[in-house]
Amino acid sequence: xxxxxxxxxxxxxxxxxxxxxxxxxxxxxxxxxxxxxxxxxxxxxxxxxxxxxxxxxxxxx
Length: 61
Known about the structure:
Elements: H1 2-18, H2 26-42, H3 47-57
């Protein structure tokens, strides 16, 4: 059973290596941007971030 499992795993690895690369579409990039935005929205703001925001509001960068 172990030998068979190892052979199947090896065959799967080879199949993955020889598979054609999938083309990234605009939907892929859009989904990635939405995930990143959601992750950043959940991230707690630090004092440094708050200061940057305040400076930006005042026109200072």
